[in-house]
Predict the structure.
Amino acid sequence: MKKALITGITGQDGAYLAEHLLSIGYKVYGSYRRTSSENFWRIEDLDIQNNPNLELIEMDLTDMGNIIRLISKYEFDEIYNLAAQSFVGVSFEKPTTTGLITGLGVTNLLEGIRTVNPKIKFYQASTSEMFGEVQEIPQKETTPFYPRSPYGVAKLYGHWITVNYRESFDIFGSSGILFNHESPLRGKEFVTRKITDAVAKIHLGKQSHIELGNMDAKRDWGFAKEYVIGMYKMLQAEKPDAFVLSTGRTETVRDFVTMSFKCVGIDIEWKGNNESEIGINAKTGDLLVKVNPKFYRPAEVDLLIGDCSKATEVLGWEPMTTLEELSKIMVEKDIERNKNGWSF
Ligand code: NDP
Ligand code: GDR
């Protein structure tokens, strides 16, 4: 039985990856950080919390001694590093913390592998945020990086240190350069889930409207459940490498709002622009969306669109779910949750 460690098991991708690895016969160790209250709602939602092959262990990414002891104790075959301070907006307010966890945390894990067992395969959760300011359309593995946030900069460090340990110490370290991927397990601070949760609440009469930031930002959004399979495939490939996972389609935040309201039968009409833009119900004239500049970022990534042909060719991976289908899955789940008074 193969043994995998997933750091960040309490996050969106950690939960889906655990579900996938368990389904193909892995023993999965999910690491989480010590907090005053437990945060396992995602693995509960996927109903894997009582799976005998899932073991939850406490691990602090910023503590190398702790990491070395755990790697020695459990003898993992594969480590998937998904833990991070992952919210771009917050990284402008907490750049040092973001650097320590999202950046240096990667070195701590790689040092653990180098020290205990260099044969352990390592997956690093890299990101399209490393592309940042547009250098090329679409973005692929060879596109130059130009990060636009402390998060993007920290991830770029994690990306290159993985390459460096591969070249210096022959460690099987691969990076998945994943474009935005969403699901009903997405945290509500991220824009898609913020939108689908608000649409559900507006539909149920629990909220009047939603306030958002930059409506013109364009993202390449896919379905998280499919992206974690790409992570697994990267560690089964013949050799370690970097791979883009994306859909090849980009839409604005505004488009995603329009799409999500359509799921509950509401057509939205857009008026004004920038800070004065609003979205109203085309039938009733009710205000549904308002721009609030407090959600703007000090520096923005305007346009992301990925080319995943290398992953398709080498790994046989490709995205399946359209953005319309994804927004429907998310809105329907949020309606169900809001009806049940569920707050995550
Ligand atoms: P989430 O924000 O849902 O999950 C992040 C995980 O990291 C959580 O389990 C969180 O724990 C954990 N974490 C945060 N801070 C620490 C810390 N100090 N020590 C240990 N663990 C910590 O992210 P996703 O699941 O969406 O993303 C997974 C990874 O992939 C992240 O590294 C992210 O940056 C990256 N990524 C994500 C993309 C996406 O579109 N989703 C795209 C590209 C890359 P807790 O629950 O306690 O907060
Ligand atoms: P992103 O995702 O920054 O791309 O990072 P997020 O959903 O936070 O933002 C996407 C775009 O929407 C704009 N936006 C808003 N964003 C938020 N969160 N809230 C708002 O109200 C709002 N209004 C407009 C943002 O400005 C941005 O342009 C995600 C994270 O999962 C990262 O960890 C990951 O690396 C990248 O995706 C790929």
